[in-house]
């Protein structure tokens, strides 16, 4: 299988679950009478990918027992992740009444965790297989085509099925679709050194996978119970205005990084913080870029802001305008898919021909226009044409910005630490947006839907102010750092 075809498939695997714990879940909660502030809190489930750097080094350093020998390190993790995705989605289907929001949150977090783990493994593999910008362009485009095709298929299909057969059927249908690529991945050629003992390796992998899935569920339940207990003790509830707390929390990473940067910049090649398997890959980012790292991280935090915030409240807005789940599903079908793929294709083509700063600027502008399209939609008479136009603008901008952004992040990565560093950079890029998304319900109550979407688009466009500096940044020349 060619690299583009492989990453089309992997993008499909990662894209199917995403809407099921974000946009589709928001509509499901809306239909069950959950308030807008609580729906905003559920957007914090999408914070989990932001913290993938916490376990990404494990995927670089270790293989899944059995699966690693049978399929190789990267594919072993991908296959385990697919098993986790399907099991979590089935659990969400069986608890689709949302009688207990804590249980709903548990399965949504697990679905997000396994989706993120799949992306970490696939991104590391992509950077290893295609280390240059010219090679990355078509592979990233193929990956995002698969990803966005799956997102649209899941979002559109789930809503149409839910409108006719209920939410349980909707989640079971998407769980079945998520399993479809599994036979293709498992029957691809295995690792050369897996010729001996394949049956034993496969059995060992299945047993280890079952144990890992159960352990992940138990750990998530325990952590969730502790967090809910702390939130209750702190008086956090459906009417809590979290905006100020979120903004203060979002500043902490930047303050912490500024404090440790001088020590990192002076660290010699044999310093423990640079050689550490746990933190060495992340320290390397700061060592190579120095204080410019703060500029890079501020830029990437703003760049996808509009898309993340729009994802949280766009469907509740559309539902409030009187559109049915089927109408929303149709708009999220062919219209969203075509416009998104055009955006991705254009972005993948431009990164191979235009200067980086110009492609990033165009992506930011397209993303902002996509957000502002929802303001326009809110002031039109309800009808399919205006819904299609707004959806197309949103998805085109999302696709274009996403393609150029993935290539930009990939070029920041040191090839020695592909999985961990890409996980850190892509995760941090969504930390501030997803923190603010959790307060989106409070924001909407304060400034309305119009103010919310005007602001979200303006924040994405504001990232272009960093481009004159971003375009001139170069990493520090490597020293004689030991491997």
UniProtKB/TrEMBL annotation:
Subcellular location: Membrane
Assigned keywords, A-Z: Membrane, Transmembrane, Transmembrane helix, Transport
Single GO cellular component term: membrane
TM spans (from-to): 36-55, 76-95, 101-125, 168-186, 206-228, 244-264, 285-305, 325-351, 358-379, 385-410, 422-440, 452-470
Keyword Transport annotated: yes
Top-level division of the source organism's lineage: Bacteria
Broad class of where this protein is predominantly found: membrane
Membrane topology: Multi-pass membrane protein
The keyword Cell inner membrane belongs to this UniProt entry's keyword annotation: no
Protein name: Permease
Source organism (scientific name): Sphingomonas horti
């Amino acid at each position: 299988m060619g690299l583009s075809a492989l990453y089309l498939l992997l993008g499909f695997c990662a894209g199917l679950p995403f809407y099921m714990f974000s946009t589709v879940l928001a509509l499901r909660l809306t239909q069950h009478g959950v308030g807008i502030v609580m729906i905003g809190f559920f957007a914090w489930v999408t914070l989990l990918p932001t913290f993938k750097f916490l376990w990404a080094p494990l995927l670089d350093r270790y293989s899944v027992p059995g699966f690693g020998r049978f399929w190789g390190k990267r594919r072993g993790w991908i296959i385990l992740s697919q098993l986790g995705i399907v099991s979590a989605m089935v659990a969400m289907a069986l608890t689709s009444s949302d009688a207990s929001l804590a249980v709903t949150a548990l399965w949504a977090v697990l679905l997000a965790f396994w989706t993120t783990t799949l992306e970490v493994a696939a991104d590391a593999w992509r950077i290893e297989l295609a280390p240059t910008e010219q090679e990355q362009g078509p592979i990233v485009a193929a990956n995002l085509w698969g990803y966005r095709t799956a997102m649209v298929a899941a979002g559109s299909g789930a809503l149409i099925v839910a409108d006719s057969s209920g939410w349980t059927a909707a989640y079971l249908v998407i769980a079945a679709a998520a399993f479809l690529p599994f036979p293709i991945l498992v029957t691809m050629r295995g690792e050369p050194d897996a010729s001996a003992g394949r049956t034993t390796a496969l059995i060992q992998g299945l047993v280890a996978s079952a144990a890992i899935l159960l352990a992940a569920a138990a750990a998530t339940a325990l952590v969730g119970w502790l967090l809910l207990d702390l939130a209750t003790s702190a008086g956090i509830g459906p009417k809590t205005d979290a905006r100020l707390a979120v903004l203060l929390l979002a500043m902490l990473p930047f303050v912490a990084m500024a404090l440790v940067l001088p020590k990192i910049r002076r660290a010699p090649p044999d310093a423990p913080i640079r050689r550490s398997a746990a933190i060495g890959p992340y320290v390397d980012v700061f060592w190579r870029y120095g204080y410019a790292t703060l500029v890079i991280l501020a830029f990437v935090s703003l760049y996808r802001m509009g898309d993340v915030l729009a994802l949280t409240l766009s469907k509740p807005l559309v539902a409030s305008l009187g559109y049915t789940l089927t109408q929303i599903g149709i708009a999220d079908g062919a219209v969203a898919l075509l416009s998104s793929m055009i955006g991705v294709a254009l972005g993948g083509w431009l990164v191979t021909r235009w200067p980086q700063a110009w492609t990033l600027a165009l992506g930011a502008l397209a993303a902002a226009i996509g957000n502002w399209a929802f303001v326009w939609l809110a002031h039109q008479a309800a009808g399919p044409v205006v819904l299609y136009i707004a959806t197309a603008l949103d998805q085109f901008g999302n696709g274009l910005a996403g393609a150029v952004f993935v290539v930009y992040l990939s070029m920041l990565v040191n090839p020695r630490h592909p999985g961990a560093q890409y996980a850190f950079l892509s995760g941090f890029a969504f930390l501030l947006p997803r923190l603010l998304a959790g307060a989106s319900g409070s924001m909407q109550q304060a400034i309305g839907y119009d103010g919310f979407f005007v602001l979200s688009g303006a924040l994405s466009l504001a990232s272009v102010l960093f481009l004159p500096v971003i375009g001139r940044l170069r990493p520090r020349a490597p020293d004689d750092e030991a491997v």
